[in-house]
Amino acid sequence: MLRPHTFFLFLLKSVKINNNTLSFIFSLSIVIHMIILSI
Description:
Elements: H1 4-15, H2 20-38
């Protein structure tokens, strides 16, 4: 099973698109995962 951080790094490497919407969604998902992991 992939760890969340590894998965995000993989996503970041595979996507590499300078899209504001994509960046926003990506950042938002990271924040949500951080919150879930910290609980």
